[in-house]
TrEMBL record:
Keywords: Lyase
Catalysed reactions listed for this entry: L-tyrosine = (E)-4-coumarate + NH4(+)
UniProt cross-references to SUPFAM superfamilies, sorted A to Z: L-aspartase-like (SSF48557)
EC number: 4.3.1.23
UniProt keyword Metal-binding present: no
GO biological process per UniProt: secondary metabolite biosynthetic process
Pfam families named in the record: Lyase_aromatic
Catalytic EC class: lyase
GO molecular function annotation: tyrosine ammonia-lyase activity
Official protein name in the record: tyrosine ammonia-lyase
Length: 513
């Protein structure tokens, strides 16, 4: 009997990246903090806004137009119509739709921000957002159209519209009209109150949700790339002493030391080793801790940037109901996420480049210390017509080149827009989308290099003087053998590469703690 998972509570409790990942993967239920004091604090913001309207106060986005139109007064008789106009005219997104996992992460990020109680929204809005997550009602959100300030306006307009029963959602695997799904669930679509459409749209939820997913993928990729490197040290009969603990004490970057420690454990470095072909291996083996260590050392500050943004109120204006003040600012600016994602895509692309170089050594008889050309397992009488991993190496080179090309920082391409009101913008959402694409490409490189490394280890095991694999690598090799047979006679490897990518996406292999 399985123990029910503790639900993730949206409210005053901060969320971690792991919480967003669990929500995005539908692994845990959700709930909204329900104590009376918290609900009253949320309600007080909306009540304060209503009192200002009664006094005919001037509030940006409530009694004024939006953006550069903030100088345009909106008469009180039109205030109720303003939220619908905001999400309506922003319904111009293009490009591919966010997938289900990313959409859930976006909903979680937006709900968490509004739960701070300084956005002037009703409790009912928070409840409906939480219900979207709980019932897996997913707005269909186009990826493209945000400059990252004033937040993710256009993509988040699809959240506001679907909460109001407009546009389309994904529900139970089908593309449906939001209004039909509301009826099926017995819900009344929300009529957004003054400030609520702005509160939903004027924030960094899309870039932040994507950043949470990117961080989790990069963290697993770091561990996988370390394991692949260990397999390649065995396949290439490299020198495990390159990862000696005393060596890394002389240059003590913590992440670099951690990667070296993982390699020592994988390689059982204290065990006797085979005779060395080279005193010093080529850099893609010898310097693997130095390459991967930069990513390892960056994860802490990347986490900090992402989680502070995740647990922030990032719309405008901020409503301070306690002090009865409306604070106009720019918390919708996604600069921290933009820099984090621009940095992450460079860190990850370097992992692709490292693994691509290791694969190039594996397939080349000039450098692979006795392995057959292109890692073909064909017998001698058929070797001339078999080409093993030759095309896989070409594909890996292409994926690596594309990953490296996509490292151009998005954040430096700020564009003045919206009548020069949004004259300096973050481009954080583009940076996050770039980071996801670089991760996709690097995972393809990792899949190819993992299968090739496994083939190399298998080929070494065929030798009469073959040594037993260290325990961690033996277990990995045996597990891989269940899905990926040795390549003896040429076969198309696309299906196996795609299966390997599925395993990576599911974080299937237990790697390093």
């Amino acid at each position: 009997m399985t123990t029910p998972l503790e639900p993730i509570t949206f409210g005053e409790r901060p969320l971690r990246i792991e919480d967003v990942l669990a929500l995005a993967n539908r692994q845990v239920p959700t709930q909204l903090q329900g104590d009376a004091a918290y609900r009253q604090r949320i309600a007080k913001g909306a009540q304060f806004l209503d009192s200002l309207l009664d006094k005919e106060g001037v509030i940006y986005g409530v009694t004024t137009g939006y953006g550069d139109s903030c100088v345009v007064a909106v008469p009180l008789e039109h205030v109720e119509a303003l939220p619908r106009h905001l999400y309506t005219f922003h319904g111009c997104g293009l490009g591919k739709l966010l997938d289900a996992q990313a959409t859930r992460a976006v909903l979680a990020a937006r709900l968490q921000s509004l739960c701070h109680g300084v956005s002037g929204v009703r409790v009912e809005l928070l409840e409906r957002l939480q219900a979207f997550l709980e019932h897996d009602v997913l707005p269909l959100i186009p990826e493209e159209g945000s400059v990252g300030a004033s937040g993710d306006l256009t993509p988040l307009s699809y959240v506001a519209a679907t909460l109001s029963g407009e546009r389309e959602v994904l529900f139970r695997g089908e593309r449906r009209q939001a209004a039909d799904v509301h009826r099926e669930l017995g819900w009344e679509p929300l009529v957004l109150r003054p400030k609520e459409a702005l509160a939903l749209m004027n924030g960094t939820a899309v870039m932040t949700g994507l950043a949470c997913l990117a961080f989790a993928r990069a963290n697993y990729l770091l561990q996988l790339a370390t394991r692949i490197t260990a397999l390649n040290v065995v396949a290439l009969q490299g020198n495990p002493e390159h990862f000696d603990e005393r060596l890394f004490a002389a240059k003590p970057h913590p992440g670099q030391m951690q990667v070296a420690a993982w390699l020592r454990k994988d390689l059982a470095i204290d065990a006797p080793t085979a005779p060395l072909h080279r005193l010093q291996d080529r850099y893609s083996l010898r310097c693997a801790p130095h390459v991967l260590g930069v990513l390892a050392d960056s994860l802490n500050w990347l986490r900090s940037f992402i989680e502070i943004e995740l647990n922030s109120a990032n719309d405008n204006p901020i409503i301070d109901a306690e002090e009865e003040r409306v604070l106009h600012g720019g918390h919708f600016y996604g600069g921290h996420i933009a820099f984090a994602m621009d940095s992450l895509k460079t860190l990850v692309a370097n992992v692709a480049d490292l693994l691509d170089r290791q694969l190039a050594l594996l397939v080349d008889v000039r450098y692979n210390h006795g392995l057959p050309s292109n890692l073909s397992g064909a017998p001698a009488d058929r070797a001339m017509i078999n080409h093993g991993f030759k095309a896989v190496q070409i594909g890996t080179s292409a994926w690596t080149a594309e990953a490296l090309k996509n490292t151009m920082p998005a954040s430096v391409f700020s564009r003045s827009t919206e009548c020069h009101n949004q004259d300096k913008v973050s481009m954080g959402t583009i940076a996050a989308r770039d980071a996801i694409r670089v991760l996709e490409l690097t995972e393809q490189v990792a899949a190819a290099t993992l299968l090739a490394a496994n083939q190399g280890v298998w080929l070494r095991a065929q030798a009469e003087d073959a040594r037993p694999l260290p325990p961690a690598l033996a277990a990995m090799h045996a597990e891989l053998a269940q899905d990926f047979a040795p390549v003896i006679e040429d076969r198309a490897l696309e299906g196996e590469l795609r299966l390997c990518l599925q395993r990576i996406a599911a974080q299937h292999w237990r790697l390093h703690a």
